[in-house]
Amino acid sequence: MKETFRQSMAWLHTWAGLVVGWVLYFVFMTGTAGYFDEEITRWMQPEAPLATISAPFSATDAVAKAQRILAEEAPDADRWSIDPSWERTEHHWTLSWSSPLQPGPGKASPAGDERPHNRRERLIFDPATGAVQQPGDLPEVRETAGGLGLYRLHYHLHYMSEHTAILIVGFCTMLMFLAILSGVVTHKKIFKDFFTFRPGKGQRSWLDMHNIISVTAMPFFLMITYSGLVFFMYAYMPATMNVAYGADHEWPNDGYSNPLNPRTNNRFDDAGTPERRRTERENDAQTDAPPGALTPLAPLAAEAERQWGKGAIGGIAITHPGRTDARVTIIFLDNGLARNARKQLVFDGVSGANISPPPFRQGTTWKVQNILIALHEGLFAGPLLRWLYFLSGLLGCAMIATGLILWTVKRQQKQKGTGDRFSFRLVETLNIGTLAGLPLGIAAYFWANRLLPAGMETRTAWEYHSLFAAMGAAFIGAAIVRPAKKAWEGVLWATAAAFLLLPVLNALTTDRHLGVTLAARDWVLAGFDLTMLVLGAAFLVAALKVRNRATAIPARPRSARAVEFA
Fold this sequence. Notes:
With 566 residues, this protein is of the alpha+beta class. It is 57% helix and 8% strand. The protein has helices at residues 2-33, 37-43, 59-73, 146-156, 162-186, 190-193, 203-216, 218-231, 233-236, 238-245, 262-265, 274-284, 297-308, 364-377, 383-416, 422-451, 459-480, 484-500, 502-509, 514-517, 523-552, and strands at residues 79-84, 93-101, 117-125, 132-133, 313-319, 327-332, 344-348. Strands 4-3-2-1-5-6-7 form a 7-stranded antiparallel beta sheet, with helices on both faces. A hairpin with an 8-residue loop joins strand 1 (79-84) and strand 2. Helix 1 crosses helix 5 (162-186), helix 3 runs antiparallel to helix 13 and helix 15 packs antiparallel against helix 16. The two termini are 36 Å apart.
């Protein structure tokens, strides 16, 4: 009975991994790129100025400078906003204000009535030096899907509705979660096998590699698959969400804007948080309160940092500055594991008294869900942990790839004696086109960013088209070129060349090449080019290994040929 159960688990593990392996490889690779989405976007917009090393500054001093600037620029505004940048590649703050725009007698507002509407203006503010720039002074950057575009691919795929894609990815993720659990049961010596690798042994070598990679990052794989299912629970378990929120509650059709996505909820823009929208509504309620001096904001910021810690201020909204009904709302920078805490402090704008409402109380279920989503996204991670996320994601790609290759290696010898070659060649072609073709497509995505005209209206769409066109070319080559080793070698050579030559293309098309970025110590741009060189070198080594493996195999009868990599 025990052996039958183990055999059943082995069958389930094999077929669950094969059926969804290609989709999961796509999901893992594009999702892994998403851990550096802001850095990738920065490279894909070379018109942006080089990053300068920001001098240390005190948040309270910066808030005091921002208050002086706003008082000079917009003394009569109905609302001020001080928004520190939450992006890793930007260090400036945004100062904005809104004033009522009166249409005047006989003139209609944009809404078609004669009510006053707000006119918004903003400035770019350096918190260290106090220097101010108009948004128009910044260089215009090219339109691009950027790193966020790659990140979005890992759950909404492409060329289909987002809801359909989310369901497909969820189904495949569930099967992967099942495959991981069944794999642990199947491999009774899995931890012993972790210390065993026998190179040059064909099928045995691929199985050893698959086991080593699987065990090395198993906690990450379990976390990323389970939390991925929790991420879109509203789509996978609509009945549960209907019970909790009501059947009439309208969830957004766009998965990126779902309320559980911290990449959306963490943005401190005009409508990014419930607190910000609430203050907007308060701003619309015009009053005739008498003038009153606004309290200094620096002590209020100091109080927020005392309660939350240094660097925890996510935004400051001041309604009705210069009037006795002024209110100052300081919003918590929600970038840790405990996401969506909705922390805020509210102060009287004249006396500075703390008039904050009772804190938002999260239920245990909501807290657990937010922690799982934060772990999945990794937005809380510093540089070292972010690289660990990235390397774990690459190990996930390698685990899936070795599992798919192992499937063909195990069946290669069996297929040579039968007439049923179509299914085997189909899997073989899909393996080559996906495992080697997707990295080629990502390289083509970056090449398109540099080669497409900067002012092209549909350049974002064509960046995506270039990715899938390169993958399509890899599929066609894999289907035509025989033997399979030649197809593997050709696609790997093309992928290696695409990555290795990308810094060269960057130097020919922009002034943001390694000679400039290294000297300027712009480690985001320099790091991207260096990473492309490392990836290119890795694919170059893979291509050389395939070539050496092919030339080292002597010609002999098919019946005596050992099982080799196909």
